Protein: ADP-dependent (S)-NAD(P)H-hydrate dehydratase
Amino acid sequence: MTMPTITREDLPDLGKRSGHKFDHGHVLVLSGGPGRTGAARLAARAALRVGAGLVTLGVSPSAQLEVSMQVTAVMLHRLKDAGDLIALLEDKRLNALCAGPGLGLDHRAADLVRTVLDSGRACVLDADALTLIARDPALRERLHDSCVLTPHGGEFARLFPDIAAACGDDPAIGTKVTATRDAAARVGAVVLFKGVDTVIASPDGDCAVHSARGDRSAPWLATAGAGDVLAGIIGGLLARGFKPSDAARAATWLHVSCAINFGPGLIAEDLPDVLPAVLRDLAS
Ligand SMILES: NC(=O)C1=CN([C@@H]2O[C@H](COP(=O)(O)OP(=O)(O)OC[C@H]3O[C@@H](n4cnc5c(N)ncnc54)[C@H](OP(=O)(O)O)[C@@H]3O)[C@@H](O)[C@H]2O)[C@@H](O)CC1
Ligand SMILES: Nc1ncnc2c1ncn2[C@@H]1O[C@H](COP(=O)(O)OP(=O)(O)O)[C@@H](O)[C@H]1O
Structure:
């Protein structure tokens, strides 16, 4: 099976046009409780670095002190519960949401994910949001075509156990492509199935692959929090107005390029800070 490969040449123009910060979108990244805020902070920094005009972290009141001591350009808003989120989303300039990294699996987290989905906003759903959706069919039914789901292998198997079982341990890329397409068609959302070969499928069957092999090899990405950064890059691109499949494809390419640019010793917080060099190189 031949499949479009994501290359630099295929990326949309990621340059920032003129305008003020609100013209470049506002991302809300939801965070979990104390001791678990690192993942959401990684995502928020990545969203800002990829060019979103504003990024706000929605934090539980118990984590406010922890987060406020570690963010500067990223803003902070207390979100006790889904009621607070509904009130915050009255601001229509908050045009992209990121839920999952470090969110937790408790009632607050599930209520927040439900509110994110009911808002109809463009959103990226990762990590704990995917586990919550796997557990609750009522959340799954709320998925829509402005959602990007970014499962790793474990999350994919939780969300789509029958599709994953049908693949078994087959390492063939064609098998992963078929699985990702089936998953996207089932949930009516973009699915980005992570790994050395990352496959991105839309509900209409449109599909592309990025293989981090050969001169695109990036083994340094196998580090805690790398996926949280990818979710943030997607969130930032959604806020800037890129359509979900384009945001997912461009983010995948940028993410691997950041790892290649940094090389050995990479940890997740390095990724957002390499983005400016990668974006500058892309524009030249
Ligand atoms: N700095 C921070 O704050 C960080 C915070 N983080 C936050 O932690 C939370 C939990 O997220 P999580 O992904 O670590 O855990 P979980 O949902 O239990 O899934 C892991 C299990 O799935 C399986 N598995 C199968 N294939 C797999 C694959 N390709 N890649 C990975 N796993 C794979 C594997 O099972 P195994 O194959 O070993 O049986 C494994 O045991 C979440 O909120 C996240 O945002 C992290 O991002 C780290 C940095
Ligand atoms: N060996 C590898 N080569 C290329 N990319 C990798 C490799 N290992 C992991 N990645 C990428 O790194 C990211 C890891 O995400 P994830 O598993 O969600 O980690 P975390 O939950 O710690 O953030 C994914 O984008 C995945 O595609």
